Amino acid sequence: MNVEIVSFGYLHAAPPAAHLTLDLRSHFRDPHVSPKLRYLTAEDEPVRHAVLATPGIVPLITATLLAVDAFAAGPGGGHLVLATGCQGGRHRAATVALTVAHLLTGAGHKVTLHHRDLHKPVVNR
C-alpha cells in the first residue's frame, strides 16, 4: 500500500484531508511546555524521546499500524493518507509521523512523509 503521512499543527491552518487523522492535542503531554524542548523539533532526539516516553503514545502507534493494515486489506487498497496533528506541528505530530513512517516502511509499505508545519515559528500560547 502507498501511505502518505502528513504531520501538521492545528494552530497554523485547517487539518489536511486524510483517511485517518490522529489528533494528539488533548490526550498526550505537550513538549512545548518544557522551555528546554519548546524551540526544538522532532528532528531533535530529546523531543523524540520525550514524545515516545509519553504514556499511551506507543499503544497509539501500534494501533495506527494495525489500522493501516486494515485499510490495506480492504478492497479499495492502493493509497491511504494518514494525518497526525498537534498544536504547533513541531513535536508530537511530527514524532508520531516519523515513527509510523519508519515502522510502515520496515513492514513493506511505500511511504511518503511530509511535515507541513515543522519549520514554522513556535506559536506562543
TrEMBL record:
GO MF entries: ATP binding
Q: Which residue ranges does UniProt annotate as crossing the membrane?
A: none
Q: Where is the RapZ C-terminal domain?
A: 1-119
Protein's name according to its UniProt entry: ATPase
What taxonomic ancestry is recorded? Bacteria, Bacillati, Actinomycetota, Actinomycetes, Kitasatosporales
